[in-house]
Design a protein that fits this description.
four-stranded parallel β-sheet; mainly beta; 38% strand; 0% helix
Length: 133
């Protein structure tokens, strides 16, 4: 677990008229963070930033073990909340096997593709243990 940001609260922010992802976790090692009462409006695709910014989202969360409470996403070209769950990041951090964190009172409006999207999530008791015996 080198350099990840965990156990942080990001709250009461407003992002408006931006290119690329709004609030984003990139490395998938960031977990146990809380995103509370944030507002992200008018998020536009970009071909000049990261490749993932082509299919842009207001909230781009690569590890499901985070908490989202009272957030608002409006007017994203692609997604409101996108959880592109990453494979194992290290021996101790395995996002695909981790449970989805607490999501409450969040609202999504006018997303171009999906309001809420989760990729590759298969939560289990021991996230880093192989599904094969």
């Amino acid at each position: 677990m080198n350099g990840e940001i965990s156990f942080v609260e990001i709250s009461n922010n407003v992002l408006y008229n931006i290119k690329g992802h709004g609030i984003a976790l990139q490395t998938a090692s960031e977990n146990f963070n809380t995103f509370k009462n944030n507002l992200v409006i008018s998020v536009y695709s970009s071909y000049d930033l990261y490749q993932t910014d082509i299919s842009v989202s207001a909230f781009y969360i690569t590890n499901p073990s985070n908490t989202l409470i009272g957030n608002r996403a409006a007017g994203s070209d692609s997604f409101g909340f996108w959880f592109p769950i990453q494979n194992s990041v290290s021996r101790d951090v395995c996002p695909t096997g981790s449970p989805l964190g607490y999501v409450k009172d969040s609202v999504i409006h006018s997303s171009g593709v999906y309001g809420f999207r989760i990729n590759r999530l298969s939560a289990r008791n021991f996230p880093c243990k192989s599904l094969r015996n």
